[in-house]
Q: What sequence folds into this?
């Protein structure tokens, strides 16, 4: 087994790192403080193809593999968790399902501008009563002539008000499954500006504060029939497949946050003096750093492995769940230790680790909580 | 329009300068980057390509490892890349380097040659103008703005507190300043294409109209006695004074050191 990166991957990492350092890092604190969506950064990322990394060139993308995309989210998240998740939600949750399940017409109409970064994407599955229990969907879509009429609402939607194209899930009927009546869920592509589609409240969040998290409201929102994504009733499958990819993106975000916190801490402990010595000279500091670095490296292996599985395997549910579970928990642990090693300063907003710790928490929750990942992993082990 | 851009792989001084025991640079131990002035020159060429349409060829002389900067240039948008590498070309000073590059460029069609003003590892600013001499074409150095006007270029040349506007018939050579522009980033897809692209590799045999006596260490009149890291400045002195007192204090210090 060879763990060295290819020339492409090395160059891509250098590119993402340089971009993150020069364009993203200087704004990270301000984005967090003001909770403003970093529109200028998104436009720059669009210009350089960062919003269509794994999309084939024929659909306006960069034609790169999932690992290259993962390294982009990782490097962005090292300096700004908000920017990392903007790219992840757009790419994994909107471009990917359209690329995988869309018709040629849908790909030309929606995927091409999304991959070129002319439009931004979002994904709406979660509802007030349907989080981990995705079957609890209340939003309904009813066929009416040449279109579907959607009624209901979605919450906690990343890129909420800033996106242009949304992949939305709604109940289209009831079907019998193993002797029980269950909801038939379907996926739709909804464009911003469609009559009946509006935005509710903006969430005030603990972390990733610039990512524009909104409630989406559908009131007799009519979408054309040709905006049905996949087949009728295929929604649950599309959602689960999409989340497998999404989890790799969030795992990359978590990995980046952990790496960023570790790098900041290494620099800090060399500078910070107590009892006449740099605190890096104390064995407690050294052992903490050793544990942090080892866990970060282990997380990286799982995340990269999941990315490679997405490139080479039809199914990668298991790898994605393991990567997200581990990377998210490592991110939380490492950022918490980073704050601890920074002492009182680490608790102030002057230091990046404070923001990183708040940003890390969400990686254990969204796109499937850590508990859901454990359910997915154990289900595969026990089947 | 055909544009040739000369680029150089140089040590990344941000990563620290390392020396061999004999006092020469230990290039293998240092991180490398595309020379900043050259990158600005490449960006200028790519902007001319965007604006007027052009074929941009990048060329470098160096070790096989210098291929890295060529691939970076391709990933930024250059069309072709040429690596001039040969043991007999090693140890070249600016004279031998410009002879080598001119020998390579003689094989190419070009309207414009762009080089960086100078490389951060040598700081001579000689190679660009020397190439123009060897090729017998005009040179405009220290370009801060470049425009095409029919078969001519109009260049703003930086000069102390002002700039000169110069017009030259093409073919000609321009040396670019890092301040000329903000170079673009590579794109992920561009990187993939660049890694697959074929790089033309030339050796001594491919150089046109160059005498062996002008190449490599033997053809280099410059002798480097010793290279050393720059002497770091002292910490300086910090004083907290109100503005009026500061002026008096600074003037007294300048007088003390016979500056004024």
A:
């Amino acid at each position: 087994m060879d763990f060295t990166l290819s020339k492409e991957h090395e160059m891509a990492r250098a590119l993402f790192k340089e971009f993150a350092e020069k364009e993203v890092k200087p704004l990270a604190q301000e984005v967090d403080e003001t909770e403003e969506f970093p529109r200028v950064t998104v436009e720059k990322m669009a210009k350089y193809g960062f919003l269509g990394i794994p999309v084939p060139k024929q659909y306006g993308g960069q034609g790169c593999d999932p690992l290259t995309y993962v390294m982009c989210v990782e490097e962005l998240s090292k300096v700004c968790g908000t920017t990392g998740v903007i790219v992840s939600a757009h790419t994994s949750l909107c471009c990917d399902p359209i690329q995988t399940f869309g018709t040629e017409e849908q790909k030309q109409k929606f995927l091409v501008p999304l991959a070129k970064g002319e439009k931004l994407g979002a994904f709406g599955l979660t509802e007030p009563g349907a989080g981990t229990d995705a079957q609890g969907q209340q939003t309904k879509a009813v066929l009416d002539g040449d279109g579907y009429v959607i009624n209901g609402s979605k919450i906690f939607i990343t890129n909420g008000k800033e996106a242009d194209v949304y992949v939305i899930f709604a109940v289209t009927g009831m079907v019998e499954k193993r002797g029980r009546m269950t909801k038939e869920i379907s996926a739709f592509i909804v464009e911003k500006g469609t009559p009946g589609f509006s935005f509710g409240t903006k969430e005030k969040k603990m972390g990733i504060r610039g990512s524009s998290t909104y409630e989406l409201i559908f009131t007799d929102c009519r979408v054309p029939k040709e905006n049905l994504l996949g087949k009728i009733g295929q929604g649950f499958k599309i959602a689960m497949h999409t989340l497998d990819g999404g989890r790799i993106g969030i795992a990359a975000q978590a990995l980046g946050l952990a790496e960023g916190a570790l790098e900041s801490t290494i620099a800090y402990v060399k500078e910070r003096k107590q009892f006449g010595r740099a605190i890096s000279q104390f064995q407690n500091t050294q052992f903490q750093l050793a544990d942090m670095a080892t866990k970060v490296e282990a997380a990286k292996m799982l995340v990269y492995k999941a990315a490679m599985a997405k490139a080479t395997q039809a199914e990668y549910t298991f790898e994605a769940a393991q990567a997200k579970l581990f990377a998210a928990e490592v991110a939380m642990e490492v950022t918490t230790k980073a704050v601890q090693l920074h002492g009182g300063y680490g608790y102030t907003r002057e230091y990046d680790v404070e923001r990183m710790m708040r940003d890390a928490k969400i990686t254990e929750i969204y796109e499937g909580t850590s508990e859901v990942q454990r359910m997915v992993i154990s289900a595969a082990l026990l089947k | 329009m055909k544009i040739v851009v000369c680029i150089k792989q140089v040590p990344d001084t941000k990563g620290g300068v390392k020396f061999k025991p004999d006092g020469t640079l230990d290039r293998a131990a240092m991180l490398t980057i595309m020379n900043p002035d050259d990158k600005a020159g490449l960006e200028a060429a790519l902007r001319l390509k965007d604006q007027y349409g052009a074929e941009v060829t990048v060329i470098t002389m160096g070790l096989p490892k210098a291929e890295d900067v060529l691939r970076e240039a391709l990933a930024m948008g250059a069309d072709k890349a040429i690596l001039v590498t040969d043991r007999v070309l090693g140890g070249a000073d600016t004279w031998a380097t410009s002879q080598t590059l001119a020998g390579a460029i003689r094989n190419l069609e070009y309207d414009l040659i762009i080089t960086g003003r100078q490389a951060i590892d040598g700081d001579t600013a000689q190679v660009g103008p020397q190439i123009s001499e060897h090729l017998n074409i005009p040179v405009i150095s220290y370009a801060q703005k470049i425009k095409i006007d029919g078969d001519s270029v109009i260049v703003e040349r930086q000069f102390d507190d002002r700039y000169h506007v110069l017009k030259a018939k093409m073919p000609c050579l321009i040396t670019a300043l890092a301040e000329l522009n903000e170079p673009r980033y590579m794109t992920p897809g561009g990187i993939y294409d660049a890694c697959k692209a074929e790089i033309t590799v030339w050796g001594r045999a491919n150089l046109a109209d160059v005498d062996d006596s002008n190449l490599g260490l033997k053809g280099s009149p410059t002798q480097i006695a010793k290279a050393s890291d720059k002497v770091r400045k002292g910490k300086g002195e910090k004083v907290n004074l109100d503005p009026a007192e500061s002026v008096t204090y600074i003037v007294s210090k300048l007088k003390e050191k016979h500056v004024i």
In short: The beta strands of chain A are 121-124, 140-144, 147-157, 165-177, 180-191, 197-202, 214-224, 228-229, 273-274, 277-278. Chain A is about 55% helix and 20% strand. Chain A has a mean pLDDT of 97.
